[in-house]
From TrEMBL:
The keyword Nucleus applies. This is Nuclear pore complex protein. Residues 77-535 form the Nucleoporin Nup133/Nup155-like N-terminal domain. One of its GO terms (cellular component) is nuclear pore. SUPFAM superfamilies: Nucleoporin domain.
């Protein structure tokens, strides 16, 4: 399709090659038939081997192709031997051109199939070679197209095949590669419309297939109503055998799906080239055929005359299940149908009626180019929608379009191929879309070939489209001549990559996508060839080998731009003319981890490659001579020390040493490969070479340079040694498991997995994941990849985290689950122990560890370890059917695994702290998992102890403690190492061992007091205050730190420590505390009573104790402290007096339970309108502080107003006039007023104030203000009194009371001082 005519002839010639099968390669070379006068015996040694030749992987190893080339197809799997034999027999018995094959790949099940002769061969092409079982089905004799009974159909390329996976409902959410255990096959012949159904090809008692032929009488069919309502089964026409249909009608497409809750029942739907749809209900009892005819108006041709509308031959073309709505438990399935001008979405009920309804349709070819392809443009002659595909999410629909055009300038005809991508309109409810025009263009039409040669309609209809492979957004187009072309829109242009293998690979039968083991990630393209097995197209091949589409015309009539024919021909076949090769150690460099940005390829600078090549050469010279002269200077000059981490040249060289692929391993054996000495030998050789590499770095002074400049690189190099040591121990462990399991096979799973157990399954998973992520390794065995790819051993833990359900299924017997969990746990511990031993033996080689995270402390490793540990916890908590000895052994495995996990967490947290990174979330996760593990383990210990005690007739407490002490020793050790204080406390409490408790408190010292602090908390919460205070005798500082948050007890401990001043401060603060502090602990110590809150009496008691303690301490400022305490005592006493004057009620009860602030007390005094309280309000100002005076000036003024209101000044004034008071009588009367007493209390010589002076804030008269810094210079007592209602008449009397009160007791005052004030 996408090749020049010269290249096409090569394909055409290859289609008619007929070869003969012989027993020896020599005979093959002598007897092969010529191919266009070019003998096949002269084909290059690098060509793709034919099926009868040696293994493809072996020949690929000896390929002379440049090994640095990476943009090429990679071999995945060869055909099963039985198929190769059948191919050879077919070639021997048929004439050239008659031995055609057909085949395909089912993406969901990874099953590949080929029809060779009269037999169907089915196998899982991703399964290991040793377990790649091939199912061979004989095609039955059925009614042929001409009605001849018993004649077998020989045209194998006329078959459509669908695989029905009966195990799909049991598959886990994780994308695990599992061997399909039950599957059905539906075959339909395109020409004869014969249908064959095998209910279960893997059944041991495989039944004979069921057959049927699609044929109906010419009668009215059922049509889809325009409103989209369901079409009932009664409206369908029943298919009948023996009737005839137009010879031109054939089957274009076939889809099948399992019926929920019906074992071995499926529904299949086929589309015919004459516009009909067929529905088949297949069950072991028979096949029921129903016709569902779509109205001819819905599939009308694109006639230029709009008044005519005739049926379009060859349509509908494509059927596909709508993947977005697929669920094995749903009772409905949606599928898409492609006609010659629109896409239709239909829904079928997977119920006994199997009703079909039309949901929506969208016209993709019409006059509106925004909806799809615009027709009737200049030069357009006809438009063919050829194939339809949906992405894995079901949201993007891709259609392959061919447009026949004519160039008016040159009168030449050509075909334009393009891809139309559609998506649901924004805001549309795609769960139930109904109507028309619900799609919109996702992007402009992607033109693949602007001007390709004109092909006939049969060739166009042979094209197929596949989507979903890497690079993301790419598509592969398959044509009937056996070519496969990958189209990828990259950097604003379309690029094409043509898959092609040299010489005798044959045609491409089908293409699919390697199912990725990652969520929401595409896999590489997989291609099924006619003779050379299955190949993969790496992402790098598409990106590096892709070329732009040719702009010239490739029509059979020629082109005016012939000067570039040869050049473009070379460009088109650039990616295809690269000979295949076997993956080498370079394969690791092209994995998905190397992708950068959109290119998918990590490109290293030439300088890096030169440095690495120089380092490799210098190391090689060292191995031969042992000399390192000038090595350091040469590497410095090559700038080898400039990169850090994984891309450092020293790190890459170390990685290449430990990851080298063995060239002498084979993949023809099963799990016994890992028990052979070849694996151990290879790993030991790697270890020896890596040790020599370290010696080379040390002798050349490169190690010293790396430690000072690239610590991370040095760390990675040393970790390669750790991983290699761990891999050696894992291999030994697997060998031991294989030997021990040889005498007893698992009752679960099958074949080699039964013998090898969970570790072998894990090895297969890790190897399979590596093969999927690095296409270059697809022809390697899983175990070979696992034991070779040492540097990525973290992948083992990734698979443990994501695929543990596959390794240990809930369907297994409990005993088997326990055993397999122990295997996995033992493998993890073995890896960790080997790494720790290597690190201990080579500790001098390691750089400073600050800020470096070990590989075993990475997130993926922590996740895998926790996945196993949590599963083991779940087994322990949910299972009671095993004997105690088995459970005890299981707990021992869990204890060791827990220790490894917690140690890994500890190192990860330390590294984050060193790097000053956020580590709180990781720390919380560590605490949570630590406590969960230790608590569960200790609970199991207690259960074991209870079980042991049942065996003893006489119960001895000492003996019980000895048993518990012995069983809990390992758990206690882990708890001590990782600050599992809750478990440590539980053990000490259950043992009632105070000596052990005190010993642990001394040993376990942490940042917040360690275990001591935890013990104090437990005793405090349990209200064992006497025990808590007695521990203070031994742990004085620790208890003092703890009791800072508990002042109710702190003062007692300070008195014990003879810290009297501190005790006084604590008691003083406690007495004035505003919180509702509980004193139940104090009461329990003192009298065993319990009260709810601190009462006024309690606070008074604390103040008196504080006073005594302050006097006992006799610090420098103890006098001031005593005065302050006395002032607080007076305030407390005043509150008591105020409460006595307040009527009983809820308000009074609430006041009695809490300490009121001075402001509230003053307001109560004012509110009471009591003469005595009005006067006492000023005592509160006197007993507080100067700051309180300054901050509450307005409140002080209010107190003066209240004091003035306590006497009837108008009455006093009238009496003074009427009675004619003398000075003595005036003084006597005024002494009884509140203003006089207040003035004497605030300004008199005998006034008592704790801090400051009243006249600093509020002087008696304005002219007497001695402090100019007052906030309000106009504020004074006189100013306040002038606002009084009686001041106009009795003002002089009021001021006289203020002035006499401030000086009345002063002996030096003259006699006329009073009258002068009165006269003023």
């Amino acid at each position: 399709m996408f090749s020049p005519a010269t290249k096409k002839s090569g394909f055409s010639a290859r289609k008619n090659v007929a070869l003969t099968n012989y027993d020896s390669p020599v005979a093959v070379a002598e007897n092969r038939r010529p191919l266009h006068d070019s003998p096949i015996s002269n084909r290059p040694a690098t060509g793709t081997p034919s099926p009868w030749a040696s293994r493809l992987s072996v020949l690929a190893r000896i390929s002379t192709v440049n090994k640095s080339e990476k943009g090429e197809p990679k071999y995945v799997a060869e055909f099963p031997q039985v198929l190769r034999d059948a191919q050879a027999m077919l070639l021997q018995n048929h004439a050239p051109g008659d031995a055609s094959l057909s085949g395909g790949i089912d993406k969901e099940t990874s099953l590949a199939w080929i029809i060779c002769g009269h037999r169907l061969f089915i196998w899982n092409y991703l399964s290991p070679a040793t377990s790649r079982a091939c199912v061979v089905l004989d095609l039955p004799s059925i009614t042929s197209e001409n009605g001849d009974i018993g004649k077998k159909i020989s045209h194998s390329n006329n078959w459509l095949v669908c695989v029905v996976n009966w195990d799909s409902s049991k598959r886990s959410s994780g994308k695990v590669v599992q061997q399909i255990n039950s599957a059905g096959i539906v075959l339909c012949n395109k020409k004869t419309r014969a249908l064959i159904y095998w209910p279960d090809i893997y059944s041991e008692t495989r039944n004979k297939p069921l057959t049927s032929v699609v044929s109906v009488e010419e009668s009215e069919g059922s049509y889809f109503p325009s409103d989209g309502k369901s079409i009932s089964s009664k409206q369908r026409q029943q298919g009948k055998l023996g009737s005839s249909l137009a010879r031109s009608s054939s089957i274009n497409s076939l889809i099948a799906a399992a019926v929920p809750a019906k074992r071995h029942d499926c529904i299949a739907i086929a589309s015919g080239s004459s516009g009909e749809l067929w529905q088949f209900f297949c069950s072991p009892s028979g096949i029921q055929c129903n016709q569902i005819c779509v109205g001819m108006l819905n599939i009308s041709s694109q006639s230029s005359d709009s008044s005519t509308s005739v049926a379009s031959k060859g349509y509908p073309r494509s059927l596909i299940w709508h993947s977005y709505f697929h669920s094995s438990d749903e009772s409905k399935r949606q599928f898409l149908l492609l006609t010659d001008h629109e896409i239709q979405c239909l829904e079928i009920k997977l119920s006994p009626d199997f009703d079909v309804s039309k949901l929506w349709s969208h016209q993709i070819i019409g006059t509106d180019g925004d909806l799809g392809i615009q027709k009737d443009l200049a030069g357009q002659k006809r438009i063919w929608p050829l194939e339809l595909q949906v992405d894995i999410d079901g949201k993007v629909i891709t259609i392959l379009i061919a447009i026949f055009c004519k160039d008016r300038a040159t009168s030449s005809s050509y075909t334009e191929y393009s891809l139309l991508t559609m998506q649901y309109k924004s805001g549309l409810d795609i769960t139930k879309p109904i109507g028309e025009s619900i799609l919109e263009k996702k992007a402009p039409n992607q033109v693949i070939i602007p001007k390709a040669r004109v092909e006939d309609e049969e060739f166009l209809f042979s094209m197929r489209l596949k989507v979903g492979g890497k690079p993301a957004g790419s598509a592969i187009i398959l044509s009937g001549d056996g070519t496969a072309t990958v189209s990828h829109y990259w950097r604003n242009s379309t690029r094409l990559y043509q898959f092609e293998l040299p010489n005798d690979a044959g045609k491409v039968l089908d293409a699919s996508v390697l199912s990725s083991l990652e969520d929401n990630e595409d896999g590489a393209w997989a291609v099924l060839t006619e003779k050379a097995g299955v190949w993969a197209i790496p992402e790098s091949a598409v990106l590096l080998g892709g070329v732009e589409p040719p702009e010239r015309s490739l029509s059979r009539k020629g082109s005016s731009n012939d000067r570039s024919v040869l050049e473009e021909g070379r460009n088109l076949s650039l990616a295809g003319n690269i000979a295949p090769r076997r993956a080498s150690s370079e394969a690791w460099d092209v994995g998905d981890k190397q992708r950068v940005g959109l290119t998918g390829i990590a490109r290293r600078s030439p300088q890096d490659e030169e440095s690495e090549a120089l380092l490799s050469q210098l190391f090689h010279d060292f191995l031969l001579s042992g000399q390192v002269d000038g090595v350091l200077d040469k590497l410095k000059n090559s700038r080898a020390f400039e990169r850090e981490g994984e891309i450092n040249v020293f790190t890459r060289t170390s990685k290449s040493i430990v990851d080298t692929l063995a060239k002498h391993w084979t993949t023809t054996r099963g799990p016994e490969i890992i028990s052979l000495s070849v694996v151990s030998t290879q790993l030991v050789e790697k270890q020896q070479k890596h040790q020599q590499y370290l010696q080379f770095l040390a002798l050349s002074k490169c190690h010293e340079e790396l430690c000072s400049r690239q610590r991370q690189s040095t760390q990675i190099i040393m970790e390669h040694g750790e991983k290699l040591a761990g891999m050696i121990q894992v291999r030994e462990l697997q060998h031991i498991i294989s030997q021990s399991n040889a005498t007893g096979i698992d009752a679960y799973s099958g074949s080699y997995a039964q013998i090898s157990g969970a570790l072998w399954d894990l090895i297969q998973l890790v190897g399979e994941r590596a093969r999927r992520n690095t296409v270059l390794l697809m022809d390697r065995d899983n175990a070979e990849v696992f034991y070779s790819k040492v540097s990525d051993i973290e992948e083992l833990f990734y698979c443990l985290e994501r695929q543990l359900e596959y390794l240990i299924s809930g369907e297994m017997q409990i005993a088997i689950q326990f055993r397999r969990a122990c295997e996995l746990s033992n493998a993890c511990v073995t890896l960790f122990s080997a790494a720790m031993q290597y690190r201990s033996e080579h500790h001098l080689w390691y750089p400073p560890a600050e800020g470096l995270t070990p590989w075993y402390s990475k997130t993926v490793v922590l996740g895998g370890l926790w996945s196993v540990a949590s599963f083991m916890l779940q087994l322990l908590n949910e299972t009671n059917h095993l004997d105690d000895s088995a459970k005890l052994d299981f707990c021992s495995h869990l204890e060791v695994l827990s220790e490894v996990l917690l140690e890994a967490y500890s190192n990860a947290i330390t590294a984050k702290v060193d790097r000053k990174e956020e580590h709180r979330s990781l720390l919380v996760e560590y605490w949570k998992r630590r406590d969960e593990l230790l608590d569960s383990l200790y609970q199991q210990v207690k259960k074991f102890m209870e079980a042991k005690l049942q065996d003893y007739v006489e119960k001895n407490e000492v003996q019980n403690k000895d048993i518990l002490r012995k069983l809990s020793a390992r758990v206690l050790s882990i708890a001590k190492r990782h600050e599992g204080y809750r478990t440590m406390w539980s053990i000490c409490r259950d043992l009632n061992d105070s000596e052990l408790l005190r010993s642990l408190m001394h040993e376990s010292v942490g940042p917040k007091g360690g275990f001591s602090y935890f013990v104090f908390e437990q005793l405090y919460e349990s209200k064992h205050f006497s025990k808590l205070m007695r521990l203070g005798e031994e742990f004085q500082e620790d208890l003092a730190t703890f009791l800072k948050h508990h002042p109710q007890l702190l003062w007692l401990h300070e008195l014990f420590l003879r810290q009297f001043s501190s005790a006084s401060e604590t008691l003083h603060a406690l007495s004035l505390s505003k919180e509702d502090s509980s004193i139940s602990d104090i009461d329990e110590i003192d009298a065993g009573g319990s009260k709810g809150r601190l009462t006024l009496a309690d606070r008074k008691r604390f103040l008196n104790l504080a006073k005594i303690s302050a006097m006992a301490g006799k610090n420098v400022d103890y006098d001031t402290k005593v005065k302050r305490i006395q002032a607080d005592l007076k305030i407390l006493k005043l509150q008591e007096e105020i409460l006595k004057l307040i009527p009983d009620g809820e308000e009074k009860q609430s006041m009695e339970q809490k300490l009121l602030p001075p402001v509230d007390l003053v307001e109560l005094c004012i509110k009471s309108q009591n003469r005595e309280l009005s006067l006492r309000a000023f005592d509160l100002f006197a007993w507080t502080s100067s700051s309180f005076l300054r901050n509450n000036t307005s409140l002080l003024e209010e107190c003066w107003r209240n004091a003035a209101n306590q006497d009837d000044w108008e009455k006093l004034f009238q009496m003074s006039i009427t009675e004619g008071w003398s000075d003595e009588e005036t003084l006597r009367v005024l002494r009884e007023t509140v203003l006089f007493q207040t003035s004497s209390k605030c300004y008199g010589p005998e006034s008592e104030i704790f801090e400051g002076r009243f006249d600093e804030v509020l002087p008696p008269r304005q002219e007497n203000a001695e402090f100019p810094n007052m906030k309000d210079m106009n504020s004074s007592v006189e100013t306040i009194l002038r606002q009084h209602k009686d001041f106009p008449d009795a003002g002089k009397l009021m001021l006289t009371a203020i002035m006499l009160g401030s000086v009345s007791v002063v002996t030096s005052t003259t006699d006329d001082e009073g009258p002068s004030l009165m006269d003023s």
